[in-house]
Amino acid sequence: MKMFGTIKWFKNNKGYGYIIGSDDDTYFFEKIDCINLKETFNQGDKVLFVPNFGEFTYATAVEKVVVTNE
């Protein structure tokens, strides 16, 4: 099940970062786990992702969500 989150920080030059999920957990992710590999992320960007739990929490299928005011 996908979850909404916010980019805590992302290092474009290194290709990894962290997301704060809507459940307030922190999820590690790498650029390779993104749907659009050309996408860049900035602190505060809204994303949709698949949370994974195991030895640590991490995100896959990360995609940027465009928020519009209609």
Your description of this structure?
This protein is mostly beta strands. It has a single domain (3-64), classed as OB fold (Dihydrolipoamide Acetyltransferase, E2P). Helices cover 0% and strands 49% of the residues. It has a 5-stranded antiparallel β-sheet with strand order 3-2-1-4-5, with no helix packed on it. A hairpin with a 4-residue loop joins β2 (16-21) and β3. The radius of gyration is 11 Å and the shape is globular. It starts with a strand and ends in a 6-residue tail after the last strand. The model has no long low-confidence stretch (mean pLDDT 92).
The counted number of beta strands is 5
Mean pLDDT: 92
Q: State the distance separating the first and last CA atoms.
A: 27 Å
Based on secondary structure, the structural category is: mainly beta
In which range does the helix fraction lie?
under 10%
- CATH topology-level name: OB fold (Dihydrolipoamide Acetyltransferase, E2P)
Low-confidence stretches: none
Q: Report the CATH superfamily.
A: Nucleic acid-binding proteins
> What is the CATH class name?
Mainly Beta
Strand content bin: over 45%
Largest sheet: 5 strands, antiparallel
- Rg calc: 11 Å
Identify the overall geometry: globular
CATH architecture: Beta Barrel
Name the helix and strand elements from N-terminus to C-terminus, one letter apiece: EEEEE
Largest sheet strand order: 3-2-1-4-5
